[in-house]
Specification:
Elements (H helix, E strand, L loop, with lengths): L1 H4 L9 H26 L3 H28 L15 H25 L6 H25 L1 H6 L2 H28 L3 H14 L24 H26 L39 H5 L2 H14 L3
Helix pairs in contact: 2-3, 3-4, 4-5, 5-7, 7-8, 8-9
Length: 309
């Protein structure tokens, strides 16, 4: 009787939770890839939606799914899991995709006919730079193990994006002030933008990282050279006009009160939610575990011969 009353032992495994986590992460990365493809084809609104969806996926992993996994007493060592299965890394990726999505907003403003709202662009670009700076700082502070696994060229690209958007913020603010006849400050801001676009001498100094050392980033160099040439041309034109017509005083340094102190962060994300599913208890008895593969194969063949689904 006692043998009949014994309950079958449960086969305990965290593989299903791991697979679910990776499926969610892959969905988020897939939306990010789709966003990249849409941005390349000029579909900036669609790209923004995809980036918002990707940000939502990784926000869900960070704030909901992964904490629940840990709270249930997970025995898995996080160091043995892919970076996407770390809650801190998921939060960092959310920040990255939100910054990328805001770049699509800038592109959307620029392609509209007519003169763009330069001050809005300046604030959006500064917000992108601030979010990317937050992303990098958070990775260094909270995701050391994950960061050590990532390609170094990736961090060069992030640093390049952060600093290029900081320079773009100066450029757009200069254009906005030139339109309001604040010529001296506009020239000083444009001059700062040209300095910010130079390749920096060392890590930590002002300017852009040397992308020529990263083979994957060399393709950006022609666009960067065109941007530098454009800013120099605008600056030279403005200085000529000011010296011959306006005679505004140009400060050597832009006063703190004249420079943007904070950017706009849209922080857009599309909330992600798992579909409700009816749970099924997975229990494998000792007898089932001891059955050989050949026994299972014969049983499957018998079912096929009998026409069972």
């Amino acid at each position: 009787m006692s043998g009949m009353e014994d309950k079958p032992k449960s086969f305990i495994s965290e593989a299903l939770m791991y697979d679910l986590t990776m499926a969610i992460a892959v969905e988020g990365l897939g939306r990010a890839v789709s966003a990249t493809e849409n941005s390349i084809s000029g579909e900036f609104a669609a790209a923004a939606r995809d980036y918002a969806a990707a940000a939502g996926v990784f926000d869900f992993l960070h704030a909901d799914h992964l904490p629940k996994w840990i709270s249930k007493g997970s025995s898995v060592n996080p160091k043995n899991l892919p970076s996407e299965c770390h809650a801190a890394t998921a939060k960092a990726l959310r920040l990255l995709f939100q910054a990328n999505g805001q770049q699509m907003a800038v592109a959307t403003v620029l392609i509209k006919p007519g003169t763009p709202n330069y001050m809005l662009l300046a604030k959006l670009c500064l917000g992108i730079s601030e979010t990317l700076e937050e992303f990098t700082a958070f990775l260094r502070r909270e995701c050391f193990d994950s960061q050590s696994r990532m390609d170094k060229d990736f961090f060069t690209l992030v640093s390049f994006q952060q600093n290029i958007h900081s320079a773009l913020s100066l450029y757009f603010q200069a254009r906005a002030l030139w339109e309001t006849t604040d010529y001296g400050i506009a020239i000083a801001l444009m001059s700062e933008a040209t300095v910010a676009l130079r390749t920096r001498d060392a890590v930590g100094s002002r300017g852009l990282p040397d992308i020529s050392r990263a083979p994957a980033l060399k393709a950006l160099n022609p666009d960067l050279q065109n941007m530098r040439a454009h800013c120099r041309k605008v600056l030279a034109t403005w200085e000529k006009d000011n010296n011959s017509v306006y005679y505004n005083t140009v400060p050597q340094h832009v006063p703190a009160g004249k420079k943007l102190q904070e950017g706009i962060k849209m922080s857009r994300l599309e909330a992600y939610k798992l579909e409700e599913a009816e749970p099924h208890l997975l229990v494998i008895s000792d007898g089932e575990l001891q059955r050989s593969d050949s026994d299972l194969a014969r049983e499957l063949q018998d079912r096929l011969n009998a026409g069972d689904d």
